[in-house]
Design goal:
The structure holds 2 protein chains of 2 kinds. Helix content of chain A is 71%, strand content 0%. Chain A contains 6 helices and no strands. The mean pLDDT of chain A is 82. The chains are: A mainly alpha, B alpha+beta. At the A-B interface, helix 3 and helix 4 of A face helix 1 of B.
């Protein structure tokens, strides 16, 4: 969500919260919930950007190539996300979809330090970014 | 008496009925077999058509998979789904969620099948080993022109109809073949009964007329008693003879309706039966209004009255009474006999129905009464109480 919109929402929320009108106060709470959701979602993006993109940027193979490898092997959203989660929690050569050369050169991906919630939200962001649903013409 | 329903006409009627029932059953079974055969034929034709189309659809699916492979590799550059005017297609992921579709109706897809036809389309499902773009199932669809369907139904109607006709013709021949021995046996029996009935007339008449010629006053008491017994026996035989003649021969002949003095007729018949009643010590009381007339065949009217009286004697107790009353429009015969269970009265008019096997007769008496009543539109009411007796009204 755009920062300008968020700022405006904060201002309106603050103003409504000060009101004595019950309806306005309720509207203020709704805005707070929306903003909290946005912050949490943005939190997932931040986790993804910090923990996935930052590291993969150094590799010669882009993140979308890995995504399409997962898609090729696991097909559905549920299975792709499940496989990614398992791999990131306990990476092994057997489970890895990267090529032998890549692993030899850059090593196997280290075990994730993220907790389950952050890891799942990062995977969700990854899926949203590269999924094919709605993109095929 | 005939062992069949009485006459040659009813033989052929019951024969025709048997024939029709058998043919009905036969046709039903033949129809069932044809339906089963047609279903199998239809399924085979459908499978044959699908097998033929399958080769074509497999080619299309291969082409589509190649396209998907390219799209998977170059998805960062190209996003256009591979299309071909010859077919429509769709891709589904491992959880059967639709990824993309150009099908007419993507909702009706059955991914668990391989090839099938639905709503004028033929759909072929190919399961992928490598899930390009996440697609596990590839569905390729072409239009079903329905020519095989029309051809199949045409054949079913044409050959099925011919087969049904053939079955029916064979059934007709078979049923005639099977019924022939039974028909011959019934005709033989019928012929025999007719001849016997005819031959019975002369001796019975001879006995009765000779007895009437004997003057009882010239006989001693013992001989007179013997002669009386002979007369009772002969009259019983004569009555049975009359019934048989009626059943076998008479009611085929057109009725000779005249204005009959029923008062005279009933009185005569009561007198005729009095000697039989006396043998069981049954008294007959009469209350006959003179001058009651009705247009009827006299012979048939006599049969009706005779059978009512004969039944009243037959099913009466020893020393009982019979009351006969005649009024314009009504004849009542009441006995003090064994009576019938409630509900049995309607059954009484069925042929060969007897409620007391110990009493003589063939159970045809009331059936004759019913036949005559039906012919002349007479209404018969029976009121009977077990152990007390029976009242029979004939109303017109």
């Amino acid at each position: 969500m755009g920062k300008v919109v968020m700022n405006w929402l904060l201002v309106i929320g603050y103003w409504l919260l000060g009101s004595r009108n019950g309806v306005r106060r309720f509207a203020a709470f709704c805005i707070v919930f929306v903003l909290a959701g946005v912050v949490l979602a943005d939190g997932g993006v931040a986790v993804y950007e910090r923990n996935c993109v930052a590291c993969h940027r150094k590799l010669p193979v882009t993140l979308d190539k890995f995504f399409f490898n997962y898609l090729l092997k696991y097909s559905s959203e549920r299975q792709v996300k499940g496989a990614l989660f398992k791999f990131l929690k306990h990476p092994t050569k057997k489970k890895a979809l990267a090529s032998e050369e890549l692993i030899t050169q850059y090593g196997l991906m280290p075990k994730t330090t993220l907790n389950d919630t952050d890891l799942r939200s990062a995977i969700d962001v990854y899926w949203q970014k590269y999924k094919v649903f709605g993109k095929i013409k | 008496m005939s062992a069949s329903n009485g006459t040659a006409t009813s033989i052929s009627r019951s024969e025709r009925r048997t024939l029709l029932r058998f043919l009905g059953l036969y046709a039903f079974l033949a129809f069932l077999i044809l339906v089963l055969g047609s279903t199998i034929y239809y399924k085979l034709q459908k499978d044959l058509m699908l097998q033929t189309k399958r080769l074509e659809l497999e080619e299309y699916s291969k082409e589509l998979i190649d396209g998907l492979k390219l799209l998977h590799i170059y998805f960062d550059r190209y996003r256009t789904y591979p299309r071909n005017p010859l077919y429509r297609s769709a891709i589904y992921d491992a959880d059967k969620v639709r990824i993309f579709s150009t099908l007419k109706d993507p909702k009706g897809v059955r991914l668990e099948k391989v090839i099938y036809t639905t709503d004028h389309v033929i759909q072929y499902v190919h399961v992928l080993d490598s899930y390009y773009l996440g697609a596990k199932y590839v569905v390729v669809e072409i239009d079903d022109d329905g020519r095989w369907f029309v051809r199949t139904w045409k054949n079913i109607f044409l050959y099925g109809g011919a087969l049904l006709a053939l079955f029916l013709a064979a059934g007709l021949v078979l049923v005639r073949l099977f019924l022939a021995p039974m028909r011959n046996a019934i005709r033989l029996l019928d012929r025999f009964i007719k001849d016997t009935t005819h031959e019975l007339n002369t001796p019975v008449n001879a006995i009765l007329s000779n007895i009437e010629m004997i003057d009882p006053r010239k006989l001693d008491a013992r001989t007179a008693k013997k002669i009386k017994r002979i007369e009772i026996g002969a009259r019983t035989i004569s009555n049975i003879y009359q019934d048989l003649t009626y059943l076998v021969l008479n009611h085929q002949i057109a009725s000779q309706d005249t204005s009959v003095d029923l008062s005279r007729l009933v009185a005569e018949r009561v007198e005729y039966f009095r000697i039989l009643a006396e043998s069981k010590r049954i008294g007959i009381e009469i209350d006959i209004q003179p001058g009651v007339e009705r247009r009827i065949d006299e012979n048939k009217a006599a049969r009706l009255v005779d059978n009512l009286l004969s039944n009243a004697i037959k099913y009466n107790r020893r020393g009982g009474t019979i009351f006969v009353r005649l009024r314009p429009g009504e004849l009542l015969v009441e006995d003090s006999g064994i009576g019938m269970e409630s509900g049995a009265a309607k059954e009484a008019f069925k042929r060969y129905k007897r409620f007391d096997e110990s009493a003589g007769g063939f159970g045809i008496g009331l059936n004759i009464v019913a036949m005559i009543a039906k012919e002349y539109g007479l209404r018969i009411d029976i009121e009977s109480e077990k152990g007390k007796g029976t009242k029979v009204w004939v109303r017109w």
